[in-house]
Amino acid sequence: MTTAHLLSFTLLGALLGLDVVSFPQAMMSRPIVAATAAGALAGHPMRGLLAGAILEMMAMETLPIGASRYPEWGTAAVVGGALFAVAPNAGSGATAGALVLSTLAALATAFVGGWSMFALRRLNQRWAARARGQLDRGSASTVVALQLRGLTADLLRAAAVTALTLLLFVPLVAVGLAHWSLDPKTGDIVVATLAATVAGSAAWKLAQGAPGAKWAFIAGAAAGLAAVWRQ
Amino acid sequence: MTAPERNAPANLSLSSRTQAAIFTRLFAVQGSWNYETMLGTGVGFCVEPALRNLPGGIGGEAFCEALARETRYFNSHPYLAGAAVGALARVELERRPAAQIERFRSALCGPLGSVGDQLVWAGWLPVCSLLSLLLFGLGVPALGVVVAFLSIYNVGHVALRVWALRAGWREGLRVAVALGSPILRRGPQHIARTMMFLAGAALPVALARLASATAPDIGRNALIGMLVGAGVLGFALVKLKGTLEGWKVALGVLAVVVAYAVSP
After folding, report:
1. Which of A17, A37, A111, A189 is deepest in the core (most CB within 10 A)?
2. What is the tally of structural domains in chain A?
3. Predicted local distance difference test score (pLDDT) of residue A208
């Protein structure tokens, strides 16, 4: 990975990490978008889309609800999509570990990203507490300053998570690929099956209580299986 | 509440410029989200352009009192925060008593949070996500999948933000009436059924495309094995709800696979 690549992935991770919560929450940070964008930056949008589809399934069970702590998928997907896109031989037949390694790196990044969001919220809390006097006096400039400071800190947080995890995982993935001894197909099958497992259970948990939902699932599965059978 | 208004203007209106400023700021309502005041500062930030219309303008006594009130603790779904911001802007400009505004503000938190979470995070977002996976599985190119996801999701997202701000401003203290809209009450059930249909349809085709892209000679039997495996493991995850998060299980399993694959 060149320095230009690293800088462009970092900028992308910063912008998409900001989208997760702070601005504008348009879901450009969803893995299917973010990883594809990272792949496109590396010149391989299809590889990015493959990694993005896997991570999108993994992210389905995450509900970004208020005060709960959850994995941060924006920077994670940029890292996963970038690692898979720049890996040698990735996407041309069996990926010889590249998909497994980049997915693992993305999941670890999601964990780190979630922790960094928690830390940022604590920092925002300290800034708000320090400004409480001015806020209680109705200072508009203090309100604007707190918002801008929070947004800037989130942008920097996401940039740092993207850059640091890429710097860590690029060499680790290279070492992993050099020593990969598992049958190339096996790893890809495991990662795809795991992703479908997480997505299926997430959808079931979210929607099973609605009237007719189970029948809707059966009808959908029949349609999906028929489409697969015809391929 | 029917408390007397303090010098309430006869016909309240916001200029287009003020409305645009509030709407734009709503996209950054969570910019300084924290565990103490949550959306509080963000709500103050969004409602501030409207408060400039209070007697005395920016820095006036009425403005400062109102802004101080609006930056205190508040929580809601970010897309529905507009309903609160619109309603709070109206009641502040109507010069309602401070105690009434504070009670109203507190009462808004719960409904705006739970309705939004159910409608968006547990409904619209997973539906759009599954739709994009279905398109991916059906072989739509990368750009098509991304554009379709972003377009469809954000039509709902922006429409909800626009509706929320308008409903809040129109209804003021009666904004709870707007939250009883049939779309908000019955929408989640329709969305849940759609989600289940899409989950059934999208996951097999997405899995098939992943398999064909990464291991083209995988064969139908292996694909059936993957589907059955995903079904069985998914059932186990559902049964273990609350105790295990799927992505953490995946992280652990992949770590074991990698350790095995790279061991000498």
Report:
1. A17
2. 1
3. 81
Report the pLDDT value the prediction gives residue B1, as an integer from 0 to 100: 38
- How would you class B57 by CB atoms within 10 Å of its CB: exposed for 0-12, middle for 13-18, buried for 19 or more? exposed
Q: Whole domain around residue A26: which residue ranges?
A: 3-230
ipTM of the complex: 0.96
Residue contact B203–A212, C-beta within 8 A = no
Nearest-CB residue to A188 (from B199, B205, B215): B215
Nearest by CB to residue A224, choosing from B58, B142, B204, is B204
Distances A155 to A7, A12, A117, A149, A204 between C-alpha atoms, Å:
14, 10, 11, 10, 34
Per-block average pLDDT, block size 10, for chain A (231 residues)? 94 98 97 98 96 97 86 98 87 72 98 97 97 97 98 98 98 93 88 95 89 94 92 76
CA distance B73 to chain A (A): 11
Mean of the per-residue pLDDT values for chain B?
92
| Residues B90, A61: Cα–Cα separation, whole Å | 38
- What DSSP state is assigned to residue B38? B
* Distance, CA of B215 to CA of B218 (rounded, Å): 6
pLDDT of the residue at B9: 57
Q: Is B246 exposed, middle or buried (0-12, 13-18, 19+ CB in 10 A)?
A: buried
The confidence score (pLDDT) of residue B180 equals 86
**DSSP code string of B230-255:** HHHHHHHHHHTTTT--HHHHHHHHHH
Q: How many CB pairs under 8 A join A and B?
A: 365
- What angle (nearest 5°) sits at the alpha carbon of residue A201, between those of residues A199 and A207? 100
Contacts of A67 (CB under 8 A, 6+ apart): B35, B38
- What's the CA gap between B203 and B230, in Å, rounded? 10
Q: Is B196 exposed, middle or buried (0-12, 13-18, 19+ CB in 10 A)?
A: buried
pTM passes above 0.80: yes
How far is the alpha carbon of B141 from chain A, nearest alpha carbon, in Å?
8
Side-chain-side CA neighbours of B53 within 13 Å: the count stands at 21
Cβ(A22)–Cβ(B28) below 8 Å: yes
pLDDT value of residue A95: 67
- Are residues A83 and A105 in contact, defined by beta-carbon separation less than 8 angstroms? yes
Which stretches of chain B score pLDDT less than 50? 1-5
pLDDT value for A89: 66
**The residue to which tokens 């992505």 are assigned:** B247
